[in-house]
Design goal:
This protein is mainly α. The protein contains 5 helices and no strands. It has one domain.
């Protein structure tokens, strides 16, 4: 039987898994919305507007304090890149999921995340504590990239992988 401490420790992991489990459905929904509206960017815009309509009432319901915009304006410029990256992700999902499939799109997303994350950790980018690359991290990245290759069809007529001839 789990203790309360063990359950609380597992809660963030479970929530992260649940959030990840929703991404294939978000990508497919955005893609279909883009098709219905005539362009993937329209699908992305609708997704972001719906997100706004969910977040604003949540801020109100949770009684979140007024944002410290002045403090954020004094921070490094990269503080603002999250919105740009989010918009690029949503637009990419809307445009690429129909071509790659949900699994194909998301395995590429995860691979990109892992490569960028281990580099960000290694160099201590964006305020992270540096964590050197070791053979285990290299092996993990290689396995994730192998997953891209396998899920995309092992190179056979894959839209992502084209073997040299």
């Amino acid at each position: 039987m789990f203790s309360k401490t063990a359950l609380l420790a597992l809660a963030p992991t479970g929530l992260a898994l649940l959030a990840g489990a929703g991404l294939p459905f978000q990508a497919a929904s955005n893609a279909q919305m883009g098709r219905a509206l005539g362009h993937p960017l329209w699908g992305a815009l609708v997704s972001l507007l719906v997100s706004l309509m969910v977040v604003v009432p949540a801020l109100w319901a949770l009684r979140a304090p007024t944002p410290a915009v002045a403090r954020a304006m004094q921070g490094p410029g990269w503080l603002w890149i999250g919105g740009v990256i989010g918009a690029l992700y949503v637009a990419s999902a809307a445009a690429l999921t129909p071509r790659l499939g949900a699994a194909g799109f998301l395995v590429c997303v995860v691979a990109g995340q892992m490569v960028a994350a281990v580099l960000a950790d290694h160099y201590g980018l964006m305020g992270l504590t540096p964590k050197a690359m070791d053979w285990q991290r290299w092996a993990g990245v290689a396995l994730v990239l192998g997953g891209v290759w396998l899920i995309q069809g092992g190179g056979a007529q894959s839209p992502v992988w084209t073997p040299a001839r």
